[in-house]
Amino acid sequence: VTRQVRQQRWQGRNRQLRRLIQQYICNRRIYNKIVFWRCKVWMCLLAVVVLFITLLSAVIFGIRATPLDDEFIEPNLKIHGAPRYYVGSMRLSRGSFTPELATPQSRIFSSLANPLKTMLQQLYSKSPALGYYFVDSGVFSFSNGSIIAHYWLQFALPKEAELLIRYTLSIEVLTNVLRQHLHTAGVRRLPEVDPSSVTLQVSTEEYVRSLKTGQCVFHNLLQSRKQTFDSLGLVNCSRDSSNYWLVQGMSGYSIKADISSMPARSVCSDVEVATYRSWVPDIEQTVSKFSQSSHAFSSELVVSGSVLLVTFNPRAGCELSQYSITFLQVPETDCGGVLVGTNGSFVLPSYSNDHLEGINCTWNLKLEEHFRAKLIFKDFRLDGSPKTGVSCVTDYLEVDGQRFCGEHPQFCLYSNSSSLQITFHSNQTHTKGFTMDYMATAENDVAESRCY
């Protein structure tokens, strides 16, 4: 009995053990399946994440390695693209101007210009937005006023460049990039430049090409009160090319220029002469512009400030040996004088700045008999409201006894005879001034001529 009871107990334990083993195996299989599917889900999620990171990295590195505009930018854009030129200036905070800086071939000029040129080239060539279009840059002159460096920039444009010019290559963007760069500590090793002094204007291709090569460009530093050039033909310039005279006087002086020609020596049928009160041939900086045929002429102009740009654009194979030009330096505190010649221009001294208090200037215009003067006021801005007559008291311009004050749009007047007196009076400050052109007109033509 005892043996049977023991056998039954062992059998019962064996059955219970087998059930436990079977249940364990079953549970293990179920657990393995759960773990397997969990692993598969996590592996799939991990694979998706890795794939996403891989694609994102490829896109990022692809953008860094390849320009976004590669499909739109021609590979040879800098060679075959349409050139666009700019001319600007910036003032160096330290140092003083010396006559050697007026000569581009001098060692002092190169020692100061080369670091500035390198800075401009590195700045614009490495710019993410501008580097694809930047071609070249350079410093072409220095002028007085501490030291003012004058530079040029060249960019290349694709065929459709309207939006590019409006936004990417706008004057505001180009100047702000340079100003921001000058504010950084990395440029302290360069000659210190005042960021607020940076200026920039769009220029012509012919002018900048002449500045780059040095051909047809004459740098003239006036070191005496009067200097005359009898023949304006430049030896390094072809007959059909424009001539550019970059003139600068002493600080605190205005420049008076008298340009004339002699018909006996003339071989030209047409020459366009233009003068500017800065070294940028921009319409806003124009003092006078006229065309001269084979007849003799004389033009006199006065420019406020110590820089003047005179351009001669000969046509039909002209040479400029028949021209002469005389420069006079007039203290900025002096104004007035005698005006002669068939036409001319003058700007109220210190026109570009607020003029001094208590100015009285008188110009006497004298023409040949049977001629009358036509006066064209391009920009007239004096103190007070726009008025004429005796109501003009503080700031006024008086022409043949008639007074003008305030701001006026462009207008013109005719003299009553071959002589004319022009008087400017000011008791105020913060008045900009005026510019005026004059030309001789035959008395018979006055009635048919119109003011504009």
- The low-confidence runs, each spanning 5 or more residues with pLDDT under 50, are 64-71, 350-356
Radius of gyration, in angstroms, nearest whole number: 39 Å
In round numbers, the mean pLDDT is 80
Q: Helix tally?
A: 7
Distance between the termini: 143 Å
Largest sheet: 9 strands, mixed
By helix and strand content, what is the structural category? Answer: alpha+beta
Strand-residue fraction? 35-45%
Report the principal-axis shape.
Answer: elongated
Helix fraction, binned, reads 25-40%
Number of strands: 24
Model description:
This protein is α+β, with helices and mostly antiparallel strands and 452 residues long. The protein has helices spanning 2-65, 77-80, 107-125, 162-168, 171-183, 205-213, 443-446; strands spanning 82-92, 134-144, 147-157, 199-203, 217-221, 226-229, 243-248, 253-261, 271-276, 286-292, 297-303, 307-314, 323-331, 337-339, 343-347, 359-366, 371-381, 387-388, 395-399, 402-405, 407-408, 411-414, 419-426, 433-442. Strands 6, 8, 11, 13, 15, 17, 21, 22 and 24 form a nine-stranded mixed beta sheet that branches. A six-stranded mixed beta sheet has the order 14-16-23-19-20-18, with no helix packed on it. It has a five-stranded mixed beta sheet with strand order 5-7-12-9-10, with helices on one face. A hairpin with a 2-residue loop joins β19 and β20 (402-405). The longest helix is centred in the first third of the chain and has 64 residues, at 2-65.
